[in-house]
Design goal:
The chain is of the alpha/beta class and 549 residues long. It contains 21 helices and 13 strands. α1 packs antiparallel against α2, α3 packs antiparallel against α4 and α13 packs parallel to α19. The longest helix has 31 residues.
Length: 549
């Protein structure tokens, strides 16, 4: 009887140790996947031996058996490699990954040996041994309780069931709706179309006024609707930001004291999307001595996360006295920047052309051919889905939706996948299998064939600079100063371009701003109001140091 009770205690110890071991492995995985902050990770790792020590004390075997102390020490020192692995990841000492992973495996195997060395009568198929008592309901519910606790913890950390890779700009929907406020023109430039411009200016769509009972989000994107809301605030509320103060001052001036650029700013107040489909003053040459600048870029340049929108760095530059032509559009890349430059640099002949290069998604390895009336993405209620994930274009929004659904969520094409997809624990297990090529025939997503088919088109080095060189050549031809300004990714705010992005720039020397996390909206990783203001001052000082031609 004594041995049976002791065996149950050993079983509890091994079960608890295994769960804690799994918890810290999952914590390490979440850290690598950037789903867990450094401080939370360290707390999870350090609390493990404390919980184990309490467990040993509660079951009363901490000092009665040598194997109990050995198991405790084993579990305690098993924390060390995990702890160091986390720091290796944080400090980017990639060479040290494998030695510490081997140490983790050694600790796990040692724990298995401890399990095998349990008292002999524990394994005897005799109902008089501990097995009969281990089948009692209180022992059976313990592992399920621990699994439920782990499931709840993972879900609280934002690890949703069935998710392979989190993407804040894509989510499943029951009925796909393609938004009607974006399109592409004869040059292949993605832009806000006339319907979207009308919505942003007047809050109307399909010829009807917007009402609380209606649902414009089913037809138009958040950006144009929110621009209308912010521009209504800009027209009616007291000024709070520099550009709002500029417009308030212009509205107070007599018409005779307004020049052509002043009237353009007042027109911008009434129509925030110009006739070319950009959030900018009209694209035309103004009779002014003020420096002119053409901004090329993506959602950062468009003004994403500057709420209100007129707090973006483009509007800050307007308040500083620049004639700003903002040709930034969300979701675009260097191929679109070059296409826009071919149209607008000869037309506007700006003093400065600034390419706002975001290293988070502007590094291309596949060449992109810009074609008339062909959008670079599908704007939908499921999110903005890129039409060219690699080289080959996905022809329809419906096919793109299925592609990204397979990319970001566990495909339900087998019993194993369905079993894993229903829980966060199962989803973590599936992702581990995919990462380490375990159950490869099962975890291979349906998109695998697409990626293998396009692999032959992938360049050995980034092709982004080729598009930037086209823009630089146009600037030299038209007498404009060319600037490539790097916007750092929130994941790496102090990048070493040669080390972190090798072969990205060989002929161009970009400039880079020094920012901190406080300059970003942590939810969507774009500039917040402070970041937009700091970046505008950076560009202002940069242009002041480079005389216009």
């Amino acid at each position: 009887m004594k041995d049976a009770v002791q065996s149950r205690k050993v079983f509890l110890l091994v079960l608890c140790s295994s769960m804690l071991f799994a918890l810290k492995i999952v914590s390490l995985f979440l850290l690598f996947e950037e789903k867990m902050g450094t401080s939370v990770y360290l707390s999870m790792v350090l609390i493990t031996p404390v919980i184990l020590c309490l467990t040993l004390t509660l079951i009363g075997i901490a000092n009665r058996r040598s194997w109990a102390l050995n198991t405790f020490l084993l579990a305690f020192f098993a924390i060390l490699p995990t702890f160091l692995l986390g720091f290796i990841h944080i400090w980017k000492f990639h060479w040290a990954y494998y030695p510490f992973l081997l140490l983790e495996v050694f600790c796990f195997l040692t724990a298995m040996i401890q399990l095998i060395r349990l008292p002999k009568d524990f394994w005897k198929p005799n109902t008089s041994t501990a097995w009969k008592k281990l089948l009692r309901p209180d022992f059976l519910t313990l592992p399920f309780f621990l699994l439920a606790l782990l499931e709840f913890g993972l879900f609280s950390l934002g690890i949703s069931p069935s998710v392979i890779q989190g993407n804040p700009y894509f989510h499943p929907v029951d009925s796909l709706v393609v938004w009607q406020d974006y399109s592409a023109d004869e040059y292949g430039l993605t832009h806000v179309n006339a319907q979207g411009a009308e919505l942003a200016a007047n809050g109307t769509w399909l010829g009807k006024e917007r009402t609380k009972e209606s649902d414009p989000y089913r037809t138009y994107s958040f950006s144009t609707i929110s621009i209308f809301e912010d521009w209504t605030l800009l027209r009616e509320a007291p000024p709070t930001l520099p550009f709002a103060h500029l417009l308030a001052d212009l509205k107070q001036r007599p018409d005779t004291l307004l020049d052509e650029l002043d009237r353009a700013h007042l027109e911008f107040l009434n129509r925030p999307i110009n006739s070319h489909g950009y959030r900018s003053i009209p694209f035309k040459n103004y009779a002014t001595d003020r420096p002119t600048v053409l901004l090329l870029g993506d959602s950062f340049t468009f003004g994403w996360s500057a709420r209100p929108w007129f707090g973006s760095f483009a509007d800050h530059l307007r308040a500083l006295g620049y004639v700003v032509y903002n040709a930034g559009i969300s979701g675009t890349g260097p191929d679109q920047y070059a296409a826009a430059a071919k149209v607008f640099i000869p037309m506007l002949k700006p003093d400065y052309v600034i390419v706002n290069f975001f290293v988070g998604n502007d590094i291309l390895y596949f060449p992109v051919e810009t074609k008339p009336y062909e959008m670079v993405y599908y704007p939908t209620n499921a999110g903005v889905m890129m039409a060219r994930p690699t080289y080959e274009r996905i022809p329809t929004a419906e096919e793109a939706f299925q592609f990204y659904l397979n990319q970001y969520y566990i495909p339900l094409n087998s019993f194993f996948n369905k079993f894993c997809a229903y829980t966060s624990v199962g989803s973590i297990f599936w992702r581990l299998g995919k990462r380490f090529s375990i159950f490869q025939s099962i975890t291979n997503a349906p998109n695998q064939e697409y990626f293998e088919r396009n692999l032959m088109h992938r360049s050995t080095r980034p092709v982004s600079e080729a598009y930037l060189l086209e823009i630089e050549a146009l600037c030299q031809q038209e007498g404009s100063q060319f600037v490539c300004s790097i916007i750092p990714d929130l994941k790496n705010l102090r990048p070493d371009l040669d080390k972190d992005y090798p072969d990205l720039f060989q002929s161009i020397t970009p400039v880079i701003i020094q920012l901190s996390e406080k300059d970003y909206n942590l939810k969507d990783t774009h500039f917040n109001l402070q970041g937009h203001e700091r970046y505008s001052r950076f560009l202002d000082s940069l242009m002041r140091s480079i005389p216009a031609n």
